[in-house]
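Notebook entry, structure prediction.
Reason for the run: the old model in the group folder had no record of what sequence produced it. Starting over properly, with the input documented here first.
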Amino acid sequence: YPGVKDTRYCLRGTDGAKEPKEIRDEFDTYLEKPGFSAFHKTDLDRKLRHRDVETLVLAGLVTDYCVYATALAALEHNYNVVIVKDCCASDERKLHNSLLKRFSADKMGEVLSSGELMKRLERHHIMHRLEGIEWL
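New structure, fully documented this time:
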């Protein structure tokens, strides 16, 4: 990242920047980003709009850099944002917790645990299936 002196996170060519093939499926797209936000100088917004995405679920490293920057940019692009608190991390636990608390308190989006997210997704999936059923 231009201007950043401490470059220990996700440097091109290091393990931290490798595409996580173990968790990919046919809907995933690998995106190399040149800055903290996944929207900065990328075509992420175009790709999301092409798929009619309205809500982004964010997880990753580092909460107080890339995750938060991407969350704020997503809000600027009019997406709903969910940050999965136990799927993000920082080397500063207090800062991690403070940012998540502020994001939630300011009602910018939602902060959920992975368990809460999975329950919500399951309910959504069940309700979506029920929408196609004709009731007598």
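Summary: The two ends are 60 Å apart (CA to CA).
The old model has been moved to the deprecated folder.
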